[in-house]
Each structure stands twice: as C-alpha cells, then as structure tokens.
C-alpha cells in the first residue's frame, strides 16, 4: 500500500497530461499486480478465518456432546444410587414411583440447555460467517470501487483526449480551410502567370520576327553600303581610266607630231652631210624605238585596264545578285 501511495503521489506530481498518461500506462501493470496480490491476501485471510471458525465450532460441538454424555452418565449414576438407597430404605415400587418424575425433569432441563448451547453456537457461527462474508463483500466492494475509480479515471482521460482530439481536429480543419484558400489563390496566380507567359511568348515570337526583319534590313543595308562603295570606287576607276585614255591620246598625238617633224626634218636635211643624216637617222630611230616601246606599254596598259574593267563589271553583277541570293537563302 505504501508503494501504491508513493506511485500515486508521483503520478500527481507530473507536469503535463502526456507525462501522466505515460506514467499511468507504464505503472498500470504494477498497480494491477498489487491489487491482485491484495485481493489474494484478503481471500487467504477470509479462508483462514472461516477455517478457524469451523474448527472452533467443531471443537465446541464435540465439547458439548461430551458434556451431554457426561451429564447423562451422572444422572444415571445418581438414579442408580438413589434407587439403591430407596431399596434399602423402602419398597421398590414406592421408590420407583417417587424417583421417576425428577429424572425426567432433569433430562428435559439438560436437553433444553444443550439446545440453547447449540443455538448459541449456531448463532455465533452464523455471526462469524456473516462477519466473514461482510469482510469478503467489503473487500470486493473496495476492489469494485477501485476498479470503478480507475474506469472513471480512464473515462475522464479518454474524454480529455477526445476533447484534445476535437480541438486538434478543429485546428486542422481551420488549417485545411486556410490551405484550401491559399491553394485557390495560388491556382489563380498560376493561371495569371500562365496567361502572362503566353503573352510573353507571343511577344518573344514577335520580337524574334522583328529581329529577323531587322537583321535582313541590316544585311540589305550592308550590301547596299558595299554596293555604294564599289560604285564609288568604280566611278573613281572609270575617271582614272578616262584620264589615262586622254593621256594616251595626247602621247599618241605627240608621237605622231614628232614623227611628222622627224620626217620633215629628214626631208629638209636630206641634202646635208651623210654623217649628220646618219646620226640624225640613228637618233630618230632610237627615238622611234623608244616611242614604239612607250606606245606598246600604253597599249598593254589599256588592255590591262580593259581586262580590269571587265572584272569590275563582273564583280558589280555579283554584288547586285548577292542580296537577292541571301534573301532567298534566308
């Protein structure tokens, strides 16, 4: 009982409901074992008490039977002695008639005493049995009261747990509603973001198309710029060619004039000295050779210029066809 009280005191000193429940479920088998031992002890005490009462009853019954037999023997002895004295003092009939009533009265009194004694013993045994039954019933009542208290405690704990679970369910339900609201809000935001993403993808496609168009325009501008530069260069080259042609014509005219002058000089100085004529003819021949070499060089330059001009025209046609070919490829 001391250990049980200590355990209950320790359970009461626990802080939270969870610790109490854990202590209860941990020490419940110990409490049940203690109660079972207590119940067995009470039963053993009740059995011992009943056995002692039965032994006392048997001893009392045996002593009462012995006392009754002793009283009957004494009565018989007394009757016999009284009968002997009457035989000596008077007749047998008068003594028998005189001694019969007192023997019957004493026997009846003795029987009544025995019956009263038996009734007292039975009453004592009944009272002892009632006390034993009362003790057993009180023990059973205490066990039932303890079990009922434990059941009430379990019921209260279960009701407390149910209340806690209800509160937890309410909290979880509120959290579920909040999460549903957040989920709906997030769904709307996701839909809005998907719409924005679609719009952005469309804008990106448009920007890509615009970028492609701008790239094409840039390529066209580059091609046009190159064409312009080439046209300018061609024009410059054409100007140079025209200038060179003019110079070539001037040189050719100068050569013709020199030839005519040389021929006139030769005709005028034909009558002069042969040495002078020969020298002049040599000089004229050298000049003529030089002029012919210069003329041949200029002719070769004009031919090269014509070839270069043909190449430029071909390049012009190539660049003019270039942007169209790039557009077709794109």
Automatic annotation (TrEMBL):
Domain of life: Eukaryota
Lineage: Eukaryota, Viridiplantae, Streptophyta, Embryophyta, Tracheophyta
Alphabetical list of InterPro entries matching this protein: NAB (IPR011684), NET_actin-binding_domain (IPR051861)
Organism: Stephania yunnanensis
Similarity comment: family membership: Belongs to the NET family.
Comp. bias (Polar residues): 83-106
Region (Disordered): 82-119
Protein name, entry field: NAB domain-containing protein
Keywords for the protein's UniProt record, in alphabetical order: Coiled coil
Gene Ontology molecular function: actin binding
Domain (NAB): residue spans on this chain: 1-56
Coiled-coil intervals, chain numbering: 234-268
């Amino acid at each position: 009982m001391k250990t049980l009280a200590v355990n209950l005191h320790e359970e009461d000193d626990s802080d939270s409901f969870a610790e109490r429940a854990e202590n209860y479920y941990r020490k419940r088998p110990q409490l049940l074992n203690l109660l079972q031992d207590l119940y067995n002890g009470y039963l053993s005490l009740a059995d011992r008490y009943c056995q002692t009462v039965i032994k006392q009853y048997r001893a009392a019954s045996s002593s009462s039977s012995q006392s009754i037999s002793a009283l009957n023997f004494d009565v018989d002895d007394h009757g016999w002695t009284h009968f002997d004295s009457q035989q000596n003092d008077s007749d047998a009939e008068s003594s028998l008639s005189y001694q019969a009533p007192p023997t019957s009265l004493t026997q009846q009194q003795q029987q009544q005493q025995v019956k009263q004694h038996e009734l007292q013993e039975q009453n004592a045994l009944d009272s002892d049995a009632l006390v034993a039954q009362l003790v057993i019933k009180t023990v059973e009542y205490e066990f039932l009261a303890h079990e009922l208290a434990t059941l009430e405690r379990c019921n209260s704990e279960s009701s407390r747990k149910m209340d806690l679970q209800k509160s937890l369910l309410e909290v979880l339900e509120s959290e579920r509603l909040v999460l549903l609201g957040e989920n709906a809000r997030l769904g709307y935001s996701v839909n809005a973001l998907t719409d924005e993403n679609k719009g952005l993808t469309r804008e990106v496609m448009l920007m890509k198309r615009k970028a492609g168009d701008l790239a094409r325009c840039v390529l066209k501008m580059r091609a046009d710029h190159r064409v312009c530069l080439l046209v300018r260069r061609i024009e410059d080259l054409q100007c140079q060619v025209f200038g060179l042609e003019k110079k070539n014509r001037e040189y050719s005219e100068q050569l013709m004039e020199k030839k005519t002058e040389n021929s006139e000089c030769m005709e005028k100085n034909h009558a002069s000295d042969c040495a002078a004529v020969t020298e002049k003819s040599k000089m004229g021949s050298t000049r003529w050779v030089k002029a012919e070499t210069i003329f041949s060089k200029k002719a070769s330059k004009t031919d090269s210029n014509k070839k270069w001009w043909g190449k430029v025209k071909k390049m012009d046609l190539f660049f003019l066809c270039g942007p169209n070919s790039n557009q077709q490829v794109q």
